[in-house]
Each structure stands twice: as structure tokens, then as C-alpha cells.
TrEMBL record:
Places the protein is found: Secreted
Gene Ontology CC: extracellular region
This protein's UniProt keywords: Hydrolase, Lipid degradation, Lipid metabolism, Secreted, Signal
GO molecular function, one term: hydrolase activity, acting on ester bonds
Protein name: GDSL esterase/lipase
Region forming the signal peptide: 1-31
Source species, domain of life: Eukaryota
Entries under InterPro entries matching the protein: GDSL, GDSL_esterase/lipase, SGNH_hydro_sf, SGNH_plant_lipase-like
Length: 379
């Protein structure tokens, strides 16, 4: 009897143990999925947000050389392919919204498995809305290709979560950010080598019309792949970057009018496009990020923000503003990287990125509309 009871209680204990284990593993899976509730970002665009895709391309546009990344803690200050000294705006926003990891570059061989649920980065230095943009770099991922790649990720997410959970995850927990357009002007329409550019055959109006038409198609494709929460940055004051100021031999407080006028003209059309898409694509929210006004203010009132210079590149060479040769091992570098709006001839420093990201996360509707990114996440 005693033995029977002990066997019975033993099997009871085993049953309990099995039950506990089953519960625990269920609980663990749930906890892991709750973790995903914090959200993922799928990042599209150009060198402003490239987190290393160009490292895997045969291209002239590369940032995986020192001293790029010198302030990027996760790599111990080594270059990662980011075109800045530290984190990009996409990195900072993801971190602030509670993503446990930075969105990994799509082309990195280890961007597989559950890692893709924390977000994937498709952005590529030199890339633009138009396929022809950035041709001078030989290779780059333009928006059409970036979205083809998301289509691959989309199917992988189906496999990981099952089709219905995958759909819900992409619609509700994922933010799609698009930071593109500057290269369509800088490395296409405005390129000094006119024969490669579109400027000979098209007026600014026609060219901008073309870019907007392509972008409409691209954003609609993302919608077809279940993207619902979008943030689209407009083009910044590209006439004020050290590269443009240097090649046009401007004074410290001047900017190139033509470049800024094109950006303003394009930005007006972009705003209308986002209004149109908000009306026409049911369930989608397109948030407009007014990077142009934000960065213009940063440049104009740099001292108020604690910067020492908004005209010189911290890392670069050539001309009055170190604005001709991109940042690399032979560049001169400024003493205090946190005091420069621009890291290199084209890109903001991490210090500037932090200010921009904060405004996108928490700013009001003159900068980020119809809602800021924290509100978009919680939608
Ligand atoms: C992939 O490898 C890089 C470089 O070794 C590492 O920093 C990164 O964390 C890895 N990513 C994932 C998703 O494992
Ligand atoms: C751009 O290139 C991609 C890939 O080569 C191609 O699929 C797409 O149709 C092209 N888009 C345009 C507008 O030419
Ligand atoms: C995604 O890829 C499939 C083929 O695998 C294709 O049929 C579909 O049109 C693509 N979707 C988009 C939006 O590009």
C-alpha cells in the first residue's frame, strides 16, 4: 500500500512537473511574443539611415572605414557602415520606442530567424526613389529593390509567426520609416556631370512629378504587404550641407538656393501625397516628418542648441568647410564631435541625430504630423 501510494504520488509529481514545464514553456513563448509588443522598425532609405547594407555591395559609397562609428558603443567605436560617428536617427528612434536590438541590415548574413522580428534595415548609401539615382556609386539599393527585399522578409515573418499573427504583427506592432529623396537631387538631378543627370531633358516640375509618382507606387506596395504605420521624412536643407557650401564656395551663413528650392518644391508635393494616401488607403497612417524645418532651425540657431559649427564637417577634407572628400582614415577630425551639426560633408553628427530623433518622437504637429512617433507606436 505504502509503495503504491508512493508510486502514485511519484507519478503525480511527474505529471505536475510535466504540467509545470508545459506551462512554463507556454509562458516563455508568450513572454517572448510580448517582448515583440514593444515593436519593430522596418527602415527604408539612403545613407542617413543605412546601418551597413553597403558593406555587402561592390560600391563606391561605403562608410565601413574609420573614423566612422567612433562613438558607436555597440561596436566599441569601430565602423559599422553607418555614415555618422554614432547612432543614426533610425537607431535612436528604435531604441526609444523599446526595440531590444537595432534593426539589422538586410544584407548581413546573420540577419535571419527571429532577429527579423525586431526590425530590418534596407537603407543604402546612394539610394533614392528613382532607379537611376546614385549611379555614380556603381551600386546601391534603390527603393524598388529595398521593397523587393521587404517582400522576402514578409514571407519569412509568415513562416515565423504563421500568416494571421504575422499580418497582425506587421499591421499593429511595426513602424515603417522611409528617409529618401535627397540623393534624387544631389546624386541625380543636381549632379554637376549633366549627362548622367535628368536635368537636360526635364524641368524641375517634371522631375519632381516623376519622383512623386514613383514614391506613390512604392508606398502603395508596402501597404499591399500589410504595412500600416508609416513615417516619411521630407528632404532636408540639402543646400546647406558642407559639400554644397564648399563646392559653391559660399560663406559660412549662406546656403545654395537652387538645391534648397528644389527640396522645398518636392516637400510640398510630398505633403500632398501623404494627405492623399491617408485618405485613400484604409487603415493606414502616414506620418509626415518635417526634417527640412527641423534641420534648418538646427543650422540657423546652432549655438542655441549647444553647437560650435553648423557649416564645417567634423570629419572630411577639402575647401573651407572640409566638404569635398568624404570622411576616412586620412581626414582631419574636429576635437569635440558633439559640437558639430555635421559629421561629414553630407551627414549629421550623432549629436544632431539625437535632437532630430527627440523631436520626431515627442514633437508637436509643426514638426511631426498628424501625430508623433510615440503616438504612432501606441495607435
Ligand atoms: C550579426 O553580426 C554582427 C557582427 O558580428 C553583430 O554585431 C550583430 O549583433 C549580429 N546580429 C545578429 C542579429 O545576430
Ligand atoms: C528599377 O529596377 C528594378 C530592379 O532592377 C526593376 O524591377 C524596376 O522595374 C525598375 N523600376 C523602374 C521604374 O524602372
Ligand atoms: C511579392 O512577391 C510575390 C512573389 O513572391 C509577388 O507575386 C508579389 O507581387 C510581390 N508583392 C509586392 C507588393 O511586390
Amino acid at each position: 500500500m505504502a509503495m503504491m501510494r508512493s508510486i502514485a504520488s511519484e507519478s503525480c509529481a511527474i505529471l505536475l512537473l510535466v504540467l509545470v514545464m508545459v506551462l512554463c514553456s507556454c509562458g516563455w513563448i508568450e513572454a517572448a511574443d510580448d517582448d515583440l509588443g514593444l515593436g519593430a522598425s522596418y527602415i527604408f532609405g539612403d545613407s542617413l539611415v543605412d546601418a551597413g547594407n553597403n558593406n555587402y555591395l561592390p560600391t563606391l559609397s561605403k562608410a565601413n572605414i574609420k573614423p566612422n562609428g567612433i562613438d558607436f558603443k555597440a561596436s566599441g567605436g569601430n565602423p559599422t557602415g553607418r555614415y555618422t560617428n554614432g547612432r543614426t536617427i533610425g537607431d535612436i528612434v528604435g531604441e526609444e520606442l523599446g526595440q531590444p536590438h537595432f534593426a539589422a541590415p538586410f544584407l548581413a548574413p546573420n540577419t535571419t530567424g527571429r532577429a527579423i522580428l525586431y526590425g530590418v534595415n534596407y537603407a543604402s548609401g546612394g539610394g533614392g526613389v528613382m532607379n537611376s539615382t546614385g549611379r555614380i556609386f556603381v551600386n546601391r539599393l534603390s527603393m524598388d529593390i529595398q521593397i523587393d527585399y521587404f517582400n522576402i522578409t514578409r514571407k519569412q515573418i509568415d513562416k515565423l509567426l504563421g500568416p494571421s499573427k504575422a499580418r497582425e504583427y506587421i499591421m499593429k506592432k511595426s513602424i515603417f520609416s522611409v528617409t529618401v529623396g535627397a540623393n534624387d537631387f544631389l546624386n541625380n538631378y543636381l549632379l554637376p556631370v549633366l549627362s548622367i543627370g535628368a536635368r537636360i531633358s526635364q524641368t524641375p516640375d517634371q522631375f519632381i512629378d516623376d519622383v512623386i509618382t514613383h514614391l506613390r507606387g512604392q508606398l502603395t506596395r508596402l501597404y499591399q504587404l500589410d504595412a500600416r504605420k508609416f513615417v516619411i521624412g521630407n528632404v532636408g536643407p540639402i543646400g546647406c550641407i558642407p559639400y554644397q557650401k564648399t563646392i559653391n564656395q559660399l560663406d559660412e551663413n549662406q546656403c545654395v538656393d537652387l538645391a534648397n528650392e528644389l527640396a522645398i518644391q518636392y516637400n510640398g508635393r510630398l505633403k500632398d501625397l501623404l494627405t492623399e494616401l491617408n485618405e485613400n488607403l484604409p487603415g493606414a497612417t502616414f506620418v509626415h516628418a518635417n526634417v527640412f524645418d527641423l534641420v534648418s532651425d538646427l543650422i540657423k540657431n546652432y549655438a542655441k542648441y549647444g553647437f560650435k559649427s553648423a557649416s564645417r564637417a567634423c570629419c572630411g577634407n577639402g575647401g573651407q568647410f572640409q566638404g569635398i572628400i568624404p570622411c576616412g582614415p586620412t581626414s582631419t577630425m574636429c576635437e569635440d564631435r558633439s559640437k558639430y551639426v555635421f559629421w561629414d560633408p553630407y551627414h549629421p553628427s550623432e549629436a544632431a541625430n539625437l535632437i532630430i530623433a527627440k523631436q520626431l518622437l515627442d514633437g508637436d504637429t509643426d514638426i511631426i504630423s498628424p501625430m508623433n512617433l510615440r503616438q504612432l507606436r501606441d495607435l
